[in-house]
Amino acid sequence: MTQAAIEEENKLIAQEYKELLRISYQTLTDEDKKLIRSAFEIAVDAHKNQRRKSGEAYIFHPIAVAKIVASEIGLDAVSIASALLHDVVEDTEYTLDDIDRMFGETVARIVDGLTKISHLKKDMNISQQAENFRKMLLTLNDDVRVIIIKIADRFHNMLTMDSMPEHKQVKIASETLYIYAPLAHRIGLYNIKTELEDLSLKYTEPEVYNSIKDKIEDSKEDQQAYIDAFSGIIDNSLKKEGLNYIIKGRMKSIFSMRKKMIAQNVTFDEIYDKFAIRIIYKSDIQNEKFLAWKIYSIVTDHFTPNPVRLRDWISSPKSTGYEALHITVMGPKGKWVEVQIRSERMHEIAEKGYAAHFKYKHGDQKEQGIEVWLNKLQEALENANTNAVDFVEEFKLNLYSKEIFVFTPKGELRSLPKGATPLDFSFNIHTEVGMRTRGAKVNGKLVPLNTTLSSGDQVEIITSDQAKPNQNWLDYATTARARAKIKSVLREEKKSVAEDGKEILRRKLKSQKISLNEDSINKMVSFFKLKTSLDLFYRVGIGSIDNTMIKDFASSYSNAFISFFKNRMRKSPAQEDINKDEITSKYDMLVFGKEEEKLEYKLSQCCNPIPGDEVFGFVSVSEGIKVHKKNCPNAISLQSNYAYRIISAKWIDSSQQEYQADIVMTGIDNLGLVSDITEVISDIMHVNMRNLNFSTDGGTFKGKITVVVKNKAVLKKLTDNLMNINGIDKVTRI
Fold first, then answer.
1. Pairing mode, if any, of strands 311-312 and 304-305?
2. Which residues contact residue 186 at a Cβ distance below 8 angstroms, ignoring those fewer than 6 apart?
3. Please, which pLDDT band fits residue 84 given cuts at 50, 70 and 90?
4. pLDDT of amino acid 188
5. Residues 594, 522: one domain?
6. What confidence tens digit (pLDDT) does each residue in 626-682 have?
7. Of 19, 56, 91, 175, which is the active-site residue?
8. What local confidence, expressed as pLDDT, does residue 327 receive?
9. How far is CA 324 from CA 25, 104, 248, 417, 454, in A?
10. Is residue 622 situated within a structural domain?
11. Are residues 74 and 140 in the same domain?
12. Parent domain of 109
């Protein structure tokens, strides 16, 4: 580069720095400016020999990220300094100790968090990628600013991606949609979330993006005319009340339009709520709520509201801190239009998220709302011994979720994700309550644990010391916290069954003159086509690998000659990690409906579901049940047009399946007989009673019970024990 070019670049760098201070959302003290200045100088020095792909000096990137942090997100000086330094430790000579020495522990901690998560391995497979996301989400606990600066860094990368090769663009854009946009949403950074989604669409589906963008451009004038017509009607009434306000229109984002087009199966022109109208009013804190409802009443005087579409987030703000009143009214030209009513303070919170919160909370600069959220997540994160893909999926569930508000029996308000059940509510109150849940009352009535809650429900949890989570609970719970807890209890339970199974197997092999060692375990795992040794012990423990099967194995194991040829024919793939500490599911059977029945079915050609996919059944006229993936392109039209022909379906692991059996007992009636019977049943592991029916007649007794068992061995043990009860004469299975 020529001397003149270098000087020009330095001038630009200095200009950018001044701009950074000027646009900061928080008021900066002299102390703050000093901190930012020294961070800037260190960053310039550290990156002096680096250039970006586009050819410009690297330092422009940290400055740009710092500008996003300062103005668009509105964080404090510590965050601005950390953003300037976010690549220093990773890419240059400077170490974390240097940063700690020069800028103190907080900045060092944030920079360390950013360094930890920034170098994802290149071109990784999905599980490696998920592992990295998981590491990133775990750093959420250290300091929430880490994740906010990371989002700003990603935002700037998305804005400057043009000089990258296409495959890189697609990868980075997909990653942004997968994790960064939901995170931005959850932290209340709605503007950045929208930008991230739109930019991602620009690289993942360029044609779609451009066509929607052009249509939005074309309809700009019509939109403005509509807003003018709308405000013209209510302007006088608002002015008469002496209100100080502005009315703005906001076009829905390109990404959300695309989502609507897919979900509702409509074209761009058929989307009816393309934009929202915002009324932003000036008010002091005392009168905010009163004025919001006053404006609401004026708007609904002129336009008919849709009563179902009123959203009051002023009385109970979202957990992201969002406050506003949303109404949908029939506007001019017979069009439904969403009207958002918010004060200037609410508007700032909607735009800036937590930064605006603590601007208004003077003094205490703690991110209140986010603390609560992080504490909730802490538990899910700490229990993160599931595999990484599951973990990230569960975590994502809770990022985008819409909220409902429900009451405890004492009238306390709790916020839960939309779709939550009484089981989620019980874990929301306390893990111990969740674990001991026996039943639930909603608005005073007993309901099943998988009932979907609605806003305003009052929920009471009935607990019992005997209650404990079972496999079905995973179908009932939707929140990451509840699911993480249930999974960890089930895992522990399965491990203890596996411990017993190991002992049973040791004894049974001993009787076949085979000792239980690494070799025999490996061969058994491969013989039964399982994945881990824990799978083997667990299945022996629940009896789905029984005596006959073990004998089959023993004979092939002892006859080395035969097994040599068998193994040549059935080349067993190298066991990945047979000693893994998890029991794997081998999804190999489809069951339908609430009763989980086995029915005849065909897999549909349009989406080719494979075992483990989320699926549903569709009862077709000529071909019986066709199974489709839940995200099949035809799913939406089938579910909306033929809802009555949809049947729920899921893949299960047949070796862990439970079966229903009916048992009939007859005998002589005596006192305490019923309690003896139920005691025997509840004492045997893996047995669940579905229903029971006892009748006595002239001193004789007849009982019928439906039990749920894992296999025949358990059923036999149960019938033998029932026979031993005093007074029972005969036990038969129907």
1. unpaired
2. 320, 373, 398, 399, 400
3. very high
4. 78
5. no
6. 999 888 877 777 777 777 788 889 888 776 667 788 899 998 888 788 888 888 887
7. 91
8. 93
9. 22, 39, 15, 19, 20
10. yes
11. yes
12. 3-206
CA angle 369, 373, 376 (to 5 degrees): 145
Give me the pLDDT at residue 367, please: 45
- Residue 633: in which H helix or E strand, if any? none
CATH number of 693's domain: 3.30.70.260
The CA distances from residue 328 to 102, 331, 719, 726, in Å, are 54, 9, 63, 70
Mean pLDDT of the chain: 82
User: Where do the H-state alpha helices sit in 119-219?
Assistant: 126-138, 144-159, 166-175, 181-186, 190-204, 206-218
| CA pair distance 304, 328, nearest whole angstrom | 9
What is the mean predicted confidence (pLDDT) over 135-152?
A: 76
- According to the model, what pLDDT value does residue 397 have? 60
Which residue did the predictor score with more confidence, 487 or 131? 487
Q: Look up residue 575 and give its DSSP letter.
A: P
- For the chain, what is the domain count? 5
What are the backbone dihedrals phi and psi of residue 432, each rounded to the nearest 5 degrees, phi first?
Answer: -60, -40
3-state secondary structure labels for all residues of 229-269: HHHHHHHHHHHHCCCCEEEEEEECCHHHHHHHHHHHCCCHH
Burial of 392 (0-12, 13-18, 19+ CB in 10 A): buried
Give yes or no: 653 in active site.
no
- DSSP state letter for 148: H
Q: Which residue has the tokens 């893994």?
A: 580
| Residues composing the chain | 734
Chosen domain end from 600, 626, 655: 655
Does residue 460 lie in a domain region? no
Please give the pLDDT value at position 336: 84
Residue 326 has pLDDT above 90, yes or no: yes
123 part of the active site? no
Same-domain pairing of 509 and 642? no
Domain end marker among 352, 380, 397: 352
d(CA 631, CA 615): 8
CA pair distance 90, 294, nearest whole angstrom: 54
Residue 624 in domain? yes
Same domain, 179 and 315: no
Question: pLDDT tens for residues 230-279?
Answer: 889 998 899 999 999 999 888 889 999 998 888 888 888 888 778 889 99
Rounded CA separation 150/133 (Å): 12
Q: pLDDT by residue (tens digit) across 671-717?
A: 788 888 888 887 765 677 778 888 887 888 888 998 888 777 788 88
**For position 574, what pLDDT does the model report?**
47
* Whether residue 634 is found in the same domain as residue 664: no
Phi-psi region of 592 (alpha: psi -120 to 50; beta: other; left: phi over 0): beta
Question: Which residue among the candidates 8, 41, 90, 241 is catalytic per the annotation?
Answer: 90
Decide: 590 and 627 in contact? Cβ < 8 Å: yes
